[in-house]
Each structure stands twice: as C-alpha cells, then as structure tokens.
Amino acid sequence: MVDPRSHVIARRLAHVARVIAVSSGKGGVGKSLVAATLALSLSRDGLRVGLFDLDFTGPSAHIILNTGELKPKEDKGLIPPEVDGLKFMSIVYYSGVNPAPLRGVDTSNALIELFSVTLWNNLDCLIIDMPPGIGDAVLDLLRFVNPLSFLIVTTPSKLAFETVKKQVVLLKEVGTPIIGVIENMKMTVSDEIRTLTESLGVKYLGALPYDTELEDALGNRKKLLKTLFARKLHGIIQENLKP
Questions:
Q1: Alpha carbon distances (Å) from 135 to 23, 147, 197
Q2: DSSP string across 21-81
Q3: Residue 111, in any domain of the structure
Q4: How many structural domains is the chain composed of?
Q5: Is residue 83 part of a domain?
Q6: Going by C-beta distance under 8 Å and a sequence separation of 6 or more, which residues neighbour residue 212?
Q7: How many angstroms separate the CA atoms of 219 and 228, rounded?
Q8: Interatomic CA distance for residues 125 and 49, integer angstroms
Q9: For 105-147, what is each residue's pLDDT tens digit?
Q10: What is the DSSP letter of 130?
Q11: % of the chain beyond a pLDDT of 70
C-alpha cells in the first residue's frame, strides 16, 4: 500500500527542480558546513535555493548561517524564512536547543511531517543536510523524495571512508544517483581517497583544504564565502553542479 503522505510530499516538491542530499558515513567530517556553504554559494550565484537541515543528531546550519530569530510562518503550511535570499528550514525550530532523542518510527514521522508541511514553492535546488550514516532518515528520503541525488562528504581518514563504502553500496542498490564524493579537511598531498572513490565507480569531485580561518567565519555569511574553504567549494560547484 502506498503511504498517502508520499503524494503530499510530491506536491510540496512539485516545483523544486533538483534535490541534493548532502550526506556522510559518520559525523565530524564537515557535512553540515559543506551543505550550508553549498546552499549559500548557489544562492549568491542567483539560483533559487532552499536549505533543509534534517540532521536530527545535531542541527547546526542555523549557527553556521547565523539565522538569528528568524522563524517559519504558517499559511496553509510552513513558509521557510529567508537568509540572504536563501530559504531555510530546520529541525531546530521544533526541538529548540534541546536534544531530539528520536528513534525508529519517531524519526520517520518527524521527517515525513516536516516534508509534508513545508512550502518551498519554486526552487532551482533544495539542499538537504542529512544525519550521518544510513539510518531511517536516509531510507525514508529514498522512499518519499524523487528525484533525489546524493553528495557524499568524507575526510582523508580511512575510517571515515570505510562508512562511505556502505553508503555507496546502498545507494547503488536502489538506483539513487550519486553526484560524487568531496574530500574535506585535506592537509597532505595524497591521492588515496580519490583512488578509493573511483574504485567504487563514483566520481571524486575534489578536495577542500583544512582552513584555519574557517572557525572564525562561522556565523558571518559574507566572511564565510570569502574563506579558502568556500572558494574551493564554489569551484567544485561550478564544475560539477551545473543546472
């Protein structure tokens, strides 16, 4: 039996040209920073962009972008607030600063509810900041959101990449497109992650350097886009995420 909520979500996303899930095998690899900076960069390039922070384990996009006191408005659904023209929605609007200890069906219901009530309207691209791993949120997204493609973030660590392998296997099994893998916090000259990525039949999109100025730029959108991290990411965007 088809879940009727799938039709509601389909209507909510009917005018969204592209949905990109920014994902990682494990936490601490800079996934949320990549997702937020990616969305901000695409918006500054003139695209109509939304950012959906669904990282139930620790939403942080509102801190990265310094969304302040902005809140969604209710009008036959929830209208996301805008940050420099970027539409933004987050689980933090519901959990606040408190932990959101959701498990199993609770995670699924929260995700589905958020997708069902959020009014994105016309977007060129919706960026989703996913929880790390391949848990319920990923499986539900694959079930309810179509078309969908994944952008995977890793670090140079072999341990971090080991979890990427599992993600790639799952996504390939269900036929979900993988845009490629970004290697974050790269500090040395090495082709190991590129080689491992390509051995899985996935495109290696490029490397983002470990940027010592990045921490100080968090919460300052203009300063963030001027960092080496953001400039390198923008180059990857231009080369690999053209409409």
A1: 11, 20, 22
A2: EEEESSSSSSHHHHHHHHHHHHHHTT--EEEEE--TT---HHHHHT-TT---EESSSEEPP
A3: yes
A4: 1
A5: yes
A6: none
A7: 16
A8: 5
A9: 666 777 788 888 999 999 999 999 998 877 777 787 888 888 8
A10: P
A11: 93
